[in-house]
Task: structure prediction
Amino acid sequence: MSGGKQIDCAYCDKENLSKNDIGLNKKLIHGQIKRMMCLTCMAAYFETTEEELKEMIEGFKRQDCALFG
Amino acid sequence: MIYADNAATTKISASVLEKMLPFLREEYGNASSQYSLGIKAKCAVEQARQQVAVAIGAGPSEIVFTSGGSEGNSWVLSSVSNGHVITSSIEHHSVLDACHLLERKGIEATYLPVDCKGRVSLDSIKEAIRSDTKLVSIMLANNEIGAIQPIAEIWEYLRERGILFHTDAVQAVGKIPVMVKNLGVDFLTASSHKFNGAKGTGILYKRNGVSLPPLIFGGEQERGARAGTENVAGIVAAGYAISESVNDMTAMANKLSEFVQATICGIRAQIPSIIINGDENNCLPGNVNIVFDGVTGESLMHLLDLKGICVSTSSACTSGKDKPSHVLMALGLTENQAKSAIRISYGRYNNINEVETIVATICNVYNKILAAKL
Result:
């Protein structure tokens, strides 16, 4: 959740995106993005796998990126 | 994987690796040791020195091996003990940070502006020079936009005034002809891993007769100029790598320039709004820096990474804060534009199929980002 407000996937019925999901939206699409994707939708959209996206999240966490935790 | 970030580092040449491996395995002697194992190492270092000297038109006694370009830059700048220095606003941070340190010590520094193509003007140098100017440091070619500076023209002006002249040639050596006598510089820095050598070895050219107090103490290596046990394997790699680069430089430059043209044309055909930073006609072969309106360079870079393509963005996020590139800002770009740029830098091992894949993938990813933002 970002700032206490629940953010849901704008493309499927998945609710309550995690901090990492939100961080990845901001990293890969845009920092001010309003309509966010869950990892499943994002993987499909960018023609990759959820595993790759999760690895990317871990990489950002190792770099101490404040968007992830 | 398609690697298109050769301005950051290059893949070591296979033949260069073969030449350096013995000095990591059987020939591991200290080049200062007096027995045969050490003497062999010493000979290898001196052979590399000769190779480097020939490649840049210097004498062997004018070549000092360091740990890299940053050391060489820091060394030259830190040798200024009083007065005033001049540099450009688009230098590598190893030069800029060294100048900032000089300022904290009471030495004044002037950071020259550049035009919209990233070029320093001789007029701005003439205006900046003072009676107490001790050193001018202008990079030969910029790492982010590839802009090539008029070093020889600047030297023509400086030499009559007795002002020392340094150029950071880290991006240029091995890619364009670099002859120190033609450039006229007193100091020049280069780095082996930028021309398919190994990381950890740099080259400082110091013109004979110019004084440069040591930065590192503790031994008589490099004829007393730079203490520290020599990185023999890395130095051997540097010698062979620079020779290889010089031998096919023209053909390589032509090939890389074609790749850049194909990239620009290919992307522009699908994304007409792109902006090319720097001077397309006076640029390092293989380098192109492009602004993509509406997306961030960081998004593009990460998504290209997901597709197995390595490029860079100079506006990288560190711990949640992203700063725009000082180079792009100096060109007059807005902060948004500077954050929307990526750098593609082709090298020896790229091919035209990879260029086509890069173009197609960039366009695909760009359109996906824009659509997702709606």
About this structure: The two ends of chain B are 31 Å apart (CA to CA). The CA atoms of residues 219 and 228 of chain B lie 6 Å apart.
